[in-house]
Amino acid sequence: TTVKTILSHFISTPCPQTRALSLPFLPQLISDGSVVYAEALWDHVTMDDQELGFKAGDVIEVVDATNKEWWWGRIMDSEGWFPASFVRLRVNQDEPIEEYLAHLEETHAGEEDQAGLGLLLGPGLPCKEQMRTNVINEIMSTERDYIKHLKDICEGYIKQCRKRTDMFTEEQLRTIFGNIEEIYRFQRKFLKGLEKKFNKEQPHLSEIGCCFLDHQTDFQIYSEYCNNHPNACVQLSKLMKVNKYVFFFEACRLLQKMIDISLDGFLLTPVQKICKYPLQLAELLKYTNPQHRDYKDVEAALNAMKNVARLINERKRRLENIDKIAQWQSSIEDWEGEDVLSRSSDLIFSGELTKLSQPQAKSQQRMFFLFDHQMVYCKKDLLRRDMLYYKGRMDMDHMEVIDVEDGKEKDFNISVKNALKLRSLAGDEVHLLCAKKPEQKQRWLRAFADERRQVQHDRETGFSLTEVQKKQAMLNACKSHPAGKPKAVTRPYYDFLLRQKHPSLPTALPQQQVFMLAEPKRKTSTFWHNIGRLTPFKK
């Protein structure tokens, strides 16, 4: 039973020791006709037509596992290669898995597996305590490795780049490396705190949860790095088209005796690292007894680091959306007043409503776009329904939303159905909005509540766009719509992943071979879903 329990843990835990013990019987299982499933731990987004893209949580049928680094898998009607380190085998496989575990138990496994079991089980430690020891050791080990990689980047690359003022400007270096030096200084301090709490003789007794709690606000410096990372990739890609930069970066790597990974691979590690902490803490909590002195701190630390990762992902999503918002604005005819981005950075909801405003109280069909801080409304062209004309906006910071009952409405003196009212706090502006169906009205009421929560959250977390970001987004939108030419139709950006029938094994090393770190499942942006019904945004 002990062997079965430990091997089941091996199958479900993505660590180096696990991989070595789980791989030997996998190809045999598959060749014997067993169906083996793996669960995706992280997103695998790829533009390579030989690779299989998936989201964290997806279930993949493993078709070929003879290669240790890359497996061939199938999801629905899509097949391709994927990094083995991105998934873990499901413990609850069909009966053949149980038979193999039973067989290993009966034969006491091979000598290599026995040695591995002895190493991991330790001298007489209970199973759960040994599992906690493994997780603690992994956290400490990966943290020390991470510090070395940060040091290599700062001393091996940045230090050498600063010596070559003929090749790099300080602005270029800031774009490529972001605030990684600040992250390096913080992580050294964080590691010192971990080392103080690490119990070398009995690692399972270590109390490291408080280290994460003490520094939870400090981890937010990763937000700046993650937001800048796409710009770093673009800048680095431009430089790598010139041979002298290729040779220079390779010379830096060799001089620092760094592993054979390109600079863009090294620069990805901070993005992966901040997203790995919640996964590690979740594993630590799993193997920490509620009576353990560290239990409450680990539980609080897990929630804190989830919030940090969520905040960073949300800020990244918001910054990715500002280009789309700028492009949307450039597609609207007769735009007046300030840009949407001057006050807003997120589209909350959109849809068609019937609008009545005082004093005319004339019924008008309008398309409404609710952003944080403001709502813009437009008119559809009578002949070209795909064209929108700007008609006005409302300042949501100075509006109250009122749910109106069906029947006679006193301000407008008319009978209404599925209506809500927007009234300025000063009382000098009133708008009556009517939806076609009750559920649409309820959805709008939720959207208005979401908008207020979003504004409050931004105030609490200090989120705001810089003037440079706003100007760059509008500049990009203007470039995509040159004066005197028809406005380009925006194509949804979801279309990627080509299929290929005759694949060959990828030669690229998975990023997780540098670090076993990766991004968590990202919440899909609702931006294009909300406005995708408009013809201008359809192919």
From TrEMBL:
GO cellular component: cytoplasm
Subcellular location: Cytoplasm
SMART domains: PH (SM00233), RhoGEF (SM00325), SH3 (SM00326)
Entry keyword annotation includes Manganese: no
Entry keywords, A to Z: Cytoplasm, Guanine-nucleotide releasing factor, SH3 domain
Domain SH3 stretches: 33-92
Annotated organism of origin: Echeneis naucrates (Live sharksucker)
Molecular function as annotated in GO: guanyl-nucleotide exchange factor activity
Top-rank taxon, per record: Eukaryota
The name this protein goes by in its record: Rho guanine nucleotide exchange factor 4
One BP term from GO: intracellular signal transduction
Residue ranges of every copy of the PH domain listed in the record: 346-453
Domain DH per the UniProt entry, residue ranges: 131-315
InterPro entries: DBL_dom_sf, DH_dom, GDS_CDC24_CS, PH-like_dom_sf, PH_domain, SH3-like_dom_sf, SH3_domain, SOS1_NGEF_PH
The gene coding this protein: arhgef4
